[in-house]
C-alpha cells in the first residue's frame, strides 16, 4: 500500500540499525512502526519492499505500507520488543521448551522463505521481534539484506560478522574465488541465532566475534559451547552441529532442521 504524507504521523524513535532508524507512529490513526532509511539504506528499503510483497507467514512481521518521498519509509506492525531486549527483561522466566518453540518458529519461517527462493542473509536475534508481550510467538524481520534468488543478480557478501557462514568470511577478500550467499549460508546464521536463543543472549563468546578468530576456531574444529539452557547434549549435537559444517553442501536444509526440531519435541 502506497501512502501519502497525510496518512501517517511520526512519533518517538524506538530502534535503529546500520541502514535505518525506526520510529513509533500512526498510520490511518493506528499504531505502527515506521522504518526510515538512512541515506545509505535507501536501496535496502526498496529491497525490503520487494521481499515483503512476496511473503505472508505467521512468523514474519507483516508490512502495512510504504511511503517513498524525501524520506523512504516502510510501515510495519508495531511490536514492543526484539528478542535481544525481550531476553534482557524476561530471560529469567524463559525455559527450554519455550526457547525450542522459538527455534521451531524461526525454522518454519526460514523454510518458507527458502521455498520461495528468498535468502534472509542477516538472521540474528536483533532481527527477530516478539509478537505479543506474553512472548509465545516471534517474527523474523529486517529484510534489508535479503536476496531474491530468482531476480537479484548481485549475491555478494553481506550480513553480520558473528553470524556469517565460514565460506563467506573465508573467501570474501579473495577475488579468485567467487563464493555467494546461499540457503546453506542462511543455515549457518540460523544455527548461530538458535545458539543466541538457547543462551537467551545476544552475547557470543569473546573468541567467536572477530572473523579471524571464527575462521581459526572452525578450522581447528572448535565450536560454540553448548548453550546454557540445553540439557540434552544430543539436541545441540544432532540438530545444530551439522549446520557448522565447513562445506555448505553438507549442511542440513531448513526443511530438515524444521523437521528435526519438531521430532525432538515429540520425543520430549
Ligand atoms: N515492527 C517493529 N516494531 C518494533 N520495533 C521494531 C520494528 N522493526 C524494527 N524495530 C526495532 O528497530 C531495530 C532496527 O530495525 P531493523 O533491524 O529492521 O533495521 P536495520 O537498520 O536494517 O538494522 P541492521 O542493519 O542493524 O540489522 C530492531 O532491532 C528493532 O529493535
Ligand atoms: Mg536489523
Automatic annotation (TrEMBL):
<keyword id="KW-0808">Transferase</keyword>
<keyword id="KW-0067">ATP-binding</keyword>
<protein>
    <submittedName>
        <fullName>Protein kinase domain-containing protein</fullName>
    </submittedName>
</protein>
<dbReference type="Pfam" id="PF07714">
    <property type="entry name" value="PK_Tyr_Ser-Thr"/>
</dbReference>
<keyword id="KW-0418">Kinase</keyword>
<dbReference type="InterPro" id="IPR001245">
    <property type="entry name" value="Ser-Thr/Tyr_kinase_cat_dom"/>
</dbReference>
<dbReference type="InterPro" id="IPR011009">
    <property type="entry name" value="Kinase-like_dom_sf"/>
</dbReference>
<dbReference type="GO" id="GO:0005524">
    <property type="term" value="F:ATP binding"/>
</dbReference>
<feature type="binding site">
    <location>
        <position position="35"/>
    </location>
    <ligand>
        <name>ATP</name>
    </ligand>
</feature>
<dbReference type="GO" id="GO:0004674">
    <property type="term" value="F:protein serine/threonine kinase activity"/>
</dbReference>
<dbReference type="InterPro" id="IPR050198">
    <property type="entry name" value="Non-receptor_tyrosine_kinases"/>
</dbReference>
<dbReference type="InterPro" id="IPR017441">
    <property type="entry name" value="Protein_kinase_ATP_BS"/>
</dbReference>
<dbReference type="InterPro" id="IPR000719">
    <property type="entry name" value="Prot_kinase_dom"/>
</dbReference>
<dbReference type="InterPro" id="IPR008271">
    <property type="entry name" value="Ser/Thr_kinase_AS"/>
</dbReference>
<dbReference type="GO" id="GO:0006950">
    <property type="term" value="P:response to stress"/>
</dbReference>
<keyword id="KW-0723">Serine/threonine-protein kinase</keyword>
<feature type="domain" description="Protein kinase">
    <location>
        <begin position="8"/>
        <end position="261"/>
    </location>
</feature>
<keyword id="KW-0547">Nucleotide-binding</keyword>
<comment type="similarity">
    <text>Belongs to the protein kinase superfamily.</text>
</comment>
Amino acid at each position: 500500500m502506497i501512502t501519502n504524507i497525510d496518512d501517517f504521523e511520526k512519533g518517538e524513535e524506538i530502534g535503529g540499525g546500520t541502514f535505518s532508524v525506526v520510529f513509533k507512529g500512526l498510520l490511518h490513526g493506528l499504531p505502527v512502526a515506521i522504518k526510515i532509511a538512512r541515506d545509505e539504506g535507501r536501496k535496502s528499503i526498496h529491497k525490503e519492499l520487494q521481499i515483503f510483497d512476496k511473503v505472508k507467514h505467521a512468523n514474519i512481521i507483516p508490512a502495512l505500507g510504504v511511503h517513498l518521498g524525501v524520506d523512504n519509509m516502510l510501515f510495519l506492525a508495531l511490536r514492543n520488543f526484539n528478542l535481544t531486549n525481550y531476553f534482557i527483561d524476561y530471560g529469567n522466566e524463559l525455559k527450554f521448551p519455550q526457547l525450542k518453540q522459538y527455534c521451531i518458529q524461526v525454522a518454519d519461517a526460514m523454510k518458507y522463505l527458502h521455498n520461495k527462493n528468498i535468502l534472509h542473509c542477516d538472521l540474528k536475534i536483533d532481527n527477530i521481534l516478539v509478537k505479543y508481550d506474553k512472548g509465545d510467538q516471534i517474527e523474523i524481520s529486517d529484510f534489508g539484506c535479503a536476496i531474491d534468488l530468482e531476480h537479484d543478480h548481485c549475491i555478494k557478501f553481506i550480513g553480520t560478522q558473528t553470524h556469517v557462514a565460514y565460506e563467506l568470511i573465508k573467501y570474501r577478500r579473495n577475488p579468485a574465488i567467487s563464493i555467494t550467499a546461499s540457503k546453506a549460508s542462511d543455515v549457518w546464521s540460523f544455527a548461530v541465532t538458535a545458539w543466541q536463543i538457547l543462551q537467551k543472549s545476544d552475547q557470543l563468546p569473546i573468541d567467536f566475534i572477530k572473523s579471524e578468530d571464527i575462521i581459526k576456531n572452525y578450522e581447528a574444529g572448535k565450536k560454540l559451547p553448548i548453550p546454557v539452557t540445553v540439557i540434552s547434549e544430543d539436541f545441540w549435537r544432532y540438530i545444530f552441529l551439522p549446520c557448522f559444517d565447513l562445506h555448505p553442501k553438507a549442511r542440513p536444509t531448513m526443511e530438515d532442521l524444521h523437521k528435526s526440531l519438531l521430532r525432538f519435541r515429540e520425543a520430549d
